Amino acid sequence: MSTVTGKVAVVTGAGSGIGRSLASELARRGARLALSDIDGTGLAGTAAQVTSLGAEVHTARLDVSDRTAVESYATTVAEHFGAVHQVYNNAGIGGGGGTVLETDWSVYERTIAINLFGVVHGTKAFLPHLIASGDGHVVNISSLNGIMAQPTLRKMPARQAATVIVDGVEAGRPRVLLERRLFGKA
Description:
This protein is 45% helix and 18% strand. By secondary structure, it is an alpha/beta fold. Helix 6 (156-170) links the parallel strand 5 and strand 6. It is globular and about 50 Å long.
């Protein structure tokens, strides 16, 4: 992230937590920001924070599990800024907390829709713009649950591991550097 000055950086899940911290750090380093989150209130808070740091910011309320909405968002961001250089697929949710037997199917389905397909949607929708920029980067943010299971999070490692697979599949794309991030470290 040392060469982000003037670059357009997209951060999903920017309304709180890692997404908010990432947006703030990118703003401090001079990036132009496209921020999204399903939580409009949290997103507005992040936008105010990065604006106070001097960042140019575009925001959108977005459900990353909605492929059509993500595709539309990618087009809007590219048209607004004229280019896209970095995409941080950060949006994600916890999978509940119960055991496999206690957890309803709807929790599994929603978790996978956001945490797996949200990454796929973001990567696929923005990839043409990243390639066109000649300096594209995709960063898929995951948690330690991608490589280490916990008793009450048995459904989480599959979707986290799937993120690793997406990274590996896309790594060969020309002019696009994909980075794996665990807990904010490259």
